[in-house]
Amino acid sequence: MNNDFIKYQAQTSPYPLGMEVSHAVGSYIYDINNKKYLDFVAGVSACTLGHQHPRVNQAIKDQLDKYSHVMVYGEYSQSPAVEYCKLMASLLPAPLDKTYLVNSGTEAIEGSLKLARRVTGRSQLISCHNAYHGNTMGSMSVMGFEERKQAFRPLIPDVEFITFNNEADLEKITTKTAGILLETIQGGAGFIEPQNDYLKKVRARCTEVGAMMILDEIQPGFGRTGTLFGFQNYDVVPDIVAMGKGMGGGMPVGAFTASSAMMDLLTENPKLGHITTFGGHPVIAAACLATLKEITETNLMQEALEKEKLFRSLLVHPLIQEVRGKGLMLAAMTADASITNEVILKCQDKGLILFWLLFEGCAIRITPPLTISNEEIREGCTIMLTVMDEVLASQKK
Fold this sequence. Notes:
seven-stranded mixed beta sheet, four-stranded mixed beta sheet, 12 helices
């Protein structure tokens, strides 16, 4: 299968991991030889409830028996999408009460950027160095990593970059700024958390100059940091929230949420200010609704913080310089990218799935399903430490 995978399916890098997948259940993925791998990555933060979660699977099956796609987004009332958006409004702080459903996180970013320009009538967008918000042309334009962008220029104009946690840079947010887009916790840069009330200071500056504060919750969202959305840890309310990944319990989806007054601007001048064929797809929306209910009706969010403590207590090793992040959005930092690469690849050989971050080569991604058990955490950390002992021993030879 790998030969056909390389030959017929477009690749993202020259060296894919190439696991030939048979099935996945709970916290484990199985290859075609029935070897099981403990999943510390969750599809890069997407499989919030693990693999084949019964509540999500049942919701998908039930909806398939009723109807699938029937009309482009925004025309028909379809109960999974309506119920989902209503529940989301009840869980978010005012004035975040209207949600636009799309197909991916990068589409959520596109819609958020358009909405900021529509609301303010301004053009300038501000993002952060080493930010990642997706890979379409608009989202790439606000990616703060030139190496990934240069081959595709020219991108959209009037984009300025600042440094995350640098308060002096906030003066660059002016009355010319339509919106500033921030990851609540910088992902690709190395799971960097906001410091010294940074997000509150961004919020104050945006309010002062009339710019939209957009928070990218595509990775931190849906319980991963101990609250439904990461920004709820920092006593701040953005104007627009973009979401995706963990929203659908493993199904492809995204959304952006703002106030009704703002969202309604997309309906006229011009009409169809944002449009999607498959956004709000009833089967996907049913999966999202089941996922959201499971997260909010259980102790999974609180348990994420307890599981973070367990990870931190176990991941003590000379090769680990620090563990960054919050909840189950963690990164074990080594001194060198070559160490990180060796650990990730050898752990896969031993049945543990780890992964990289986009821009920080020293980081080992640890973003397991929220449903992972303490026993499974101990199992995976034992494999990590065993591999690190081997790597350390080979360095001393």
